[in-house]
């Protein structure tokens, strides 16, 4: 850590909020992952269009005990449509 | 230094000889009179005062120089503790994810890069070249790692975000870094990274023209005694409920 004082441009990695994903050794969620990956390829790698598939994958992880069960709102998947910035400004 | 030491010793010996030759009362009187040298009293007092002021000023100067050297590590410790002045805060606000609002007019391309250490025997690559993400929206990305060897290999990873200033806005909710991950022989796993870009990135003038952020993961083999440069606050989390 002391080496970072003199080199101001050094990057400080931060720990992830929920920690580390345990590895999916048995490939339990591989199908959901493949669905998500194909969705991304179809939509030109646009994340906004593949939110449902991402939610499915995380749901699979939670079911198979590969991820802590949390509310969807806390993971950024709101139950109802949230107003985006442009709408709020109007 | 030896010369001054020698002269000091000679001076001490002389003083001792003088004091030994005389009885006690005159010895103390002599001592007092030789304090300020062979000068009169007010002059001696003034000399003594100016000497002590000089010592005080020198000590003050040394203290100021020492403090300015010590301020550098002290300030960085203070910054780490209170995240003042732009350094990343230690604890991410989980409430923020709930209430953050997606910014529609700014779309950032996140590129993914995968590296391995020179002695690491895994095959590690990202599953998608890039993802278009809007700030304020959580995103999921995947990396794949395969162990082609016949022995289980334990790996540990760290990451980097380029450009440097964007790293402060890149918040990971969950990933696979900073913890040892073991792969059995001939096993292939998908490793997800769940992250979001802080919507406050739109207010940062340094990142106004930045529309590509690169996330780079590097895997090293975890051997006994291998020490990676971890942040001290990274603790292994148990992910099962």
Structural description of this entry:
The complex is a heterodimer of chains A (90) and B (241). By secondary structure, chain A is mainly alpha-helical. Chain A has helices at residues 3-6, 30-42, 51-63, 85-89. Chain A starts with a helix and ends with a helix. Residues 85-90 of chain A have low confidence and may be disordered. Chain B is an alpha+beta fold. Chain B contains four helices and nine strands, in the order ααααβββββββββ. In chain B, the strands form two sheets. Chain B has a five-stranded mixed β-sheet with strand order 3-1-9-5-7, with no helix packed on it. At the A-B interface, helix 2, helix 3 and helix 4 of A face helix 3, helix 4, strand 3, strand 4 and strand 5 of B. Chain B: The chain crosses the membrane at residues 54-78.
- What is the residue-averaged pLDDT of chain B? 78
Largest sheet of chain B: 5 strands, mixed
Strand content of chain A: under 5%
Low-confidence stretches of chain B: 85-91, 235-241
Report the order of strands and helices of chain A: HHHH
The proportion of residues forming helix of chain B, as a percent range, comes to: 25-40%
Mean pLDDT across the residues of chain A is 75
**Distance linking N and C termini of chain A:** 46 Å
Output the radius of gyration of chain B. 34 Å
Radius of gyration of chain A (CA) equals 18 Å
The arrangement of helices and strands of chain B along the chain is HHHHEEEEEEEEE
Main sheet specs of chain A: none
* Oligomeric state, counting identical vs distinct chains: heterodimer
Number of H/I helices of chain B: 4
Find the biggest chain interface: A-B, 55 and 68 residues
Helix content of chain A: 25-40%
Give the number of DSSP strands of chain B: 9
Organism (chain B): Drosophila arizonae (Fruit fly)
Pfam families (chain B): CtaG_Cox11
Keywords (chain B): Membrane, Transmembrane, Transmembrane helix
Subcellular location (chain B): Mitochondrion inner membrane
